[in-house]
């Protein structure tokens, strides 16, 4: 009988924001899988490090950070094959995923490869958007208001058009696109309504009005924008 695959959301980084279900599953795991940037430590593993049993087998998926899709897809192909071997042997596999598995989460690529053959359960996690809003003290949507989520790599013209037609906006994956995004928001006259957050919930967290944001941003950064009252009042 095959084992079961769990895609476990870990939340944004603070281990205390893991759900009780995530903590229970990880602490009882015999096989743990997780992605890591090739040549670097795994952020997902670092969140759960104190919970992973000392005797657990670990499957590491080295995923290159590249604009080309093929290298990352090859890494997920290899990881899925290793996970499949463990499942076929009868072991349950706990796959760690920062944030939520189905919200820009790496686990969705494994789900696509393995869910038709194996029993899979997705354990949701606290998202970076809700964490950033909480840390910034910035409500994003009430009553019938709409929240628009945009990835930072979008072309400048598309970012402008989508922000223009939105009420509240969360721009993710800011990183090297910060200057472009800042220029779009400034051109729309909305800078005073925008907040910059990086590494939310971690000790090195930064929360600033966008106008005071640094020139460079890490991958784990976000801009929140509302067109209502100034969020800093």
Question: If you had to describe this structure to a student in words, what would you say it looks like?
Answer:
The protein has seven helices and ten strands. α3 crosses α4 and α6 packs across α7. It is elongated. α2 links the parallel β2 and β3. The termini are far apart. It is 30% helix and 24% strand.
What are the key terms here?
single chain; 233 residues; alpha/beta; 5-stranded parallel sheet; 10 strands; 24% strand; elongated
Number of strands: 10
The secondary-structure class comes to alpha/beta
Spatial arrangement of strands, main beta sheet: 3-2-4-1-5
Query: Unreliable runs, pLDDT <50, ≥5 residues?
Result: none
- Overall geometry: elongated
What does the largest sheet look like? 5 strands, parallel
- Please state the average pLDDT score: 94
What is the H/E order?
A: EHEHEHEHEHEHEHEEE
Report the portion of residues in β strands.
Answer: 15-25%
In whole angstroms, how far apart are the ends? 59 Å
Percent in helix: 25-40%
Number of helices: 7
What is the radius of gyration computed over CA atoms, rounded to a whole number of angstroms? 19 Å
Task: Please provide a brief summary of the model.
This protein is an alpha/beta fold. Helices cover 30% and strands 24% of the residues.
């Amino acid at each position: 009988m095959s084992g079961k695959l769990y895609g476990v959301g870990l939340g944004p980084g603070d281990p205390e924001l893991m759900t009780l279900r995530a903590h229970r599953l990880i602490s009882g795991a015999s096989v743990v899988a997780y992605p890591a940037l090739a040549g670097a430590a795994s952020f997902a593993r670092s969140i759960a490090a104190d919970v992973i049993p000392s005797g657990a087998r670990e499957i590491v998926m080295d995923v290159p950070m590249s604009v080309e899709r093929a290298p990352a897809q090859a890494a997920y192909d290899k990881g899925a094959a290793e996970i499949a071997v463990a499942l076929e042997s009868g072991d349950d596999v706990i796959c760690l995923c920062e944030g939520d598995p189905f919200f820009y989460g790496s686990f969705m690529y494994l789900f696509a490869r393995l869910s038709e053959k194996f029993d899979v359960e997705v354990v949701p996690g606290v998202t970076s958007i809700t964490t950033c809003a909480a840390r910034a003290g910035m409500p994003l949507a009430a009553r019938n208001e709409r929240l628009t989520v945009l990835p930072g790599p979008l072309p400048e013209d598309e970012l402008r058009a989508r922000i223009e037609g939105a009420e509240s906006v969360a721009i993710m994956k800011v990183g090297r696109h910060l200057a472009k995004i800042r220029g779009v928001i400034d051109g729309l006259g909305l800078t005073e309504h925008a907040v910059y957050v990086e590494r939310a919930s971690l000790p090195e967290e930064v929360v600033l009005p966008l106008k005071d944001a640094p020139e460079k941003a890490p991958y784990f950064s976000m801009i929140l924008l509302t067109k209502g009252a100034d969020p800093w009042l």
